[in-house]
Amino acid sequence: MDSKTLIMEDRQNCVCSQSDLVKIKAQDINFFYGKQQALKDINLDVLSNKVTAIIGPSGCGKSTFIRLFNRMHELVPNTTLTGRIYLDGQDILGACVDPAEIRRRIGMVFQKPNPFPKNIFENISYGLEVNGIKNKEFIEGRVIESLKKAALWDEVKDRLHDSALNLSGGQQQRLCIARCLAVKPEVLLFDEPCASLDPISTRKIEELILELKKDYAIVIVTHNMQQAARVSDYTGFFLLGELIEFDKTEKIFKAPKNQKTEDYITGRFG
Amino acid sequence: MCLLKARQGCILPRPPNMENMIKVKERLYKWLFTILAFASLIFLVGIVIVLFKEALPIFKKVKALEFIFGKFWYPTYDPPEFGIFPLILASVWVSVGAMLVCVPLGVGSALYLNEIASHKQKAVLKPLVEILASIPSIVYGFFGMVVLAPFLQNLLHLPIGLCAFTASLTLGIMATPTVCSIAEDALSYVPKSFREASFAVGANRWQTLVKVVIPAAGSGISTAIILGMSRAIGETMTVLMVAGGAAVIPKSFFDPVRPMTSAIAAEMGEAPMGSDHFHALFAIALILFLITFVFNVIAEAISRKYRIKLGLSG
Amino acid sequence: MRKDIAQKIGFSFISLCMFTTVLFLFAIIYFIGSRGIKVISWEFLTQAPRNAMTAGGVAPAIVGTLYLTLGAVVFALPLGVACAIYLNEYSPKSYIVNIIRLSINNLAGVPSVVFGLFGLAVFVKFFGFGVSILSGSLALGILVLPVIISASQEALLAVPYSLREASLALGATKWQTIRKIVLPAALPGILTGVILSIGRVAGETAPILFTAAAFYLKGYPKSIFSEVMALPYHIYALMTEGAHPEQQTAIAYGCCLILLCLVLFMSAIAIFIRQRQRSHYYG
């Protein structure tokens, strides 16, 4: 089966409309920490130029799930994963696939802003450097471009050589986004990006996500349902390692099919 | 086709052979670190091999039991006598004496740092203790020789200042910071909730300390004591300078003695390489090594158990 | 109340312990400082000994100690850091880690004189380096290896895990992450370890007794295969050999003061670096 037919097949059993392009396809995912099962039989599609939100109470496996997409789960010893994950139809879990390449194509922003203890410029150029790019002009151009895209350029353009640790929390998080953008990924994973930010910074990040949607497929994990409602096009609800429901965001929030989803949305538990 | 598109979509193509180079480099570094990481093990095994190899010849001439329990150490007589019991006894006396000094001082200081000292006091006192720990043993030996020994001799009307007692005191001072900092660590691991529970039932600070905190930190403190003992028994320069150096079975605490370490340090220079004396000194070192090895293993076992007990990760 | 009296007595006792401990530190510094300072002069620091050790300076011993210390650090630093990197970053199978950890702990507990014997048997005899700077440095290096490993490990542990994640998530390889992110962030901590180990090595005597040290040499060492004078051994020799105890003791005071100053200086730098580093990472 070649990748194209795979994608065709995807479209058929997908909840989305025909015109959307499946960027990442997760198929029959089961994941274990030691012997404890963290994810059960999960099937989910991430579409290009759409924001997919993953919600659920803490400990439901939502962060674990998106970490599979760029193979960050491999950093944790003693785990087992079965199932397939396709990026543009290419199986990314295969042994001959270089995780570094996958991680370059799928960027990730973490819960807590984690800029490197370097200056702002170096933080962003780092991703280029480790990927073997030495051309200084190119790097400089890309740094500026990324900072502009992450809506941070105006705030830092005069102090590119200051330590990144002196930025505020929200600025640091946007710096981390810019850092991802610099390597030109195709997908952006956000793992509760606003968990440690104030409301104003949160809003800026959300606006940024809506802006970035034009160029990237975006997955965002959040425990904040309003946030999911505000930024996402599709929403998946996770509970105890299972994907309970996955649909267009409006449907999930207005007319959920599953009782458990409704209970969670209406705040009856969680 | 889609695969192709994906490749083009990745706007960061690495130079074609870079991919392979990076992989080779990664593997190379991993191997390098793995090999270098085994250095400690290799040195430890090397030490064991060397000690056994150089010590064994003496046991062909003297039975192991006679060597350990023999009462006379006359390695240069004709015929020589290789009985290291006086040396072992000296080591034990001096170390036990040192423990009598450093356990109360070290644990007491740790309790002070942990229970009484304010933040400001702690910020001054802890570095002071660390400095005391970093003073070289030769300086302690010198201090014991020129300051403590004459002082004690006058004070206690001793026939000779350089004796087991002075050596114990010097070693004790020296081991105090070791005991103090390990015990302090152990005390700081005791969860706050233990204390709060005790205060909540009306115990005062001292009762809490004696009945709750010290038992909870007990195995940590015993680790500290064992490691202090291990350090005292293996210490060389201090006892070499202060203990007096007589290789006879001590009759009192105020007799000069020759612990195992100082016998090695003092005599190795004169023992012809490959002679019985030479091998005998290596045999002493072997016994010394085994003693400290046992101490360390016990300390390790206790501290591991203790960490599990308090729910700290290994 | 009785329990309050018990508390008073108990607290007085532990205060007394703390006081005594600190008192000893100041006693050592006072006695050695006050008598050592009288001997120390420019000549003392820059001249070779004269008149059978009763006059002149101790410059060759200072130089020898510097060589030995430098040699030991050059040997132990790469090994120690590499070992710490392996244990911390490459998280291999746990039984291997346990074996290595156990051997590090035990190596740290080996009596210093045993390192001297090991050096004598292996470096001096077996490899034929003779009594030399090289043999002494190697013996000292092995002695100080556990110190450097544990300091480096602590420093690596203090680097937030999220930095490694961020780097790997950008497509960096493990080694790139270690070299460009982890090691630079851990550098101050590793430096502290090195500085403390310098203090330790400079004062060690037993390992160099039979591997490197000479009581008296005419000039300075010419190569790494020469014998050297070293400060700590010089103190020992001054106190136990020779025919002029009075003058020799005075010189020994001076040597002790130099060693003490070196150690205090190193500790001060280490404490300074550590305190500056505390406020380094987020919040």
TrEMBL record, chain C:
One biological process term in Gene Ontology: phosphate ion transmembrane transport
Keyword Metal-binding: no
Membrane topology of this protein: Multi-pass membrane protein
Membrane among keywords: yes
Signal sequence residues: none
Pfam families tied to this protein: BPD_transp_1
Keywords of this entry: Cell membrane, Membrane, Transmembrane, Transmembrane helix, Transport
Protein name: Phosphate transport system permease protein PstA
Gene: pstA
